[in-house]
Amino acid sequence: MRWVWALGVLVVGFLMSTIGPIAIGAGDAKFAAALSLFIAKGDGLQFLVLFAGVLLASWLVHRIAGKITLIRKATAPWASRAAGKLFPMGVALAGTLILYLGLGAAQI
What we know:
- This protein is mainly alpha-helical and 108 residues long.
- It has one domain (2-105).
- The chain contains six helices and no strands.
- It has helices at residues 2-19, 26-35, 44-67, 69-74, 79-82, 89-105.
- Helix 1 runs antiparallel to helix 2, helix 2 packs parallel to helix 6 (89-105) and helix 3 crosses helix 6.
């Protein structure tokens, strides 16, 4: 059944990517489909709530870090910084998966 869900996530992700890269990138859609295999059957809603929080936090950190001059000078130029409103959602997806699996391992 997880493979069916992964296929569904992939199809929905690709449909969202046809709207334009503002919605979701095709790479992020593929990554979301792959990580959906690791989500327990009853944890879908909790995972989405966790993802919303991690997405908001990572977007804020990304924007704030891009504006701080010391960080801009200390790091190589970020492609996402020059992309305007685009945001690398794979960072938030990976962070959410790590947090979800860590919470599961801790039995919280």
